[in-house]
Amino acid sequence: MKLPVYVYGHPVLRKISNDITPDYPGLKELIAAMWETMYESEGVGLAAPQIGRNDRIVVIDADPVKDSFPECAGRKFTLINPQIEVLEGEPVTRSEGCLSLPGISENVPRVEHIRLKWVDENFEPHEEEISGFLARIVQHECDHLEGKLYIDHISLIRKQLIKGKLNNMIRGRIAVDYPVRFAPKK
User: Fold this and answer.
1) Which residue among 96, 106, 112, 141 is the active-site one?
2) What is the pTM of this model?
3) Other Cβ atoms closer than 10 A to 164
C-alpha cells in the first residue's frame, strides 16, 4: 500500500522518533508499505516520519545510484532503531534532495565514514562500518528520526534563498508526482 509522503512544514517531521520493539503491531505491513512508497516516489531511502510515523524505522535501497557511487551497489536494508557513530574525516559537501522537500536540492556537508548499529525487520542485530555516499544516505535518513532535515545543515544564506520554495511547501502550493500530505491548515 503506497502511503503519502509528508512534506516540509508538517510537524511530524520535526519530532524525535521512538524506538520500537518486536511486538510493534503491524510492523511487517508497515515496512512493506514503506518500501512501496519509497519505490513509487523514486527515492533511495525513506524514514517513518516521512509517512507520518514517529518510529525509528528506515528503508534504504542505494542500488539505483551505483553507477556514480559503487559502494551503493546492492545495498538494500531495513534499519530499525539505528545508531550512528562518526568515525573520522572532514565533512564532504554533496548535493542532497529529499522526498519531503520536493523540487529542491542543496549542498550538505557530512562525514563519509560512520559505524552503523541497527536491528533488521527480524530484530537481528547488525553493526557495520559504512563509507562514501552510502554513509550520506544513512545519515540523511537517520536525521529524520531525530526531527532533522538536510536543510538544517545548510547556511543561513542558502536558507534565505530557498525560503520562498519552503513557504510554498508549507502552504501546499507545489506540484509533486507522488502522493503527499501537507501541514494542517492553521
Assistant:
1) 141
2) 0.96
3) 9
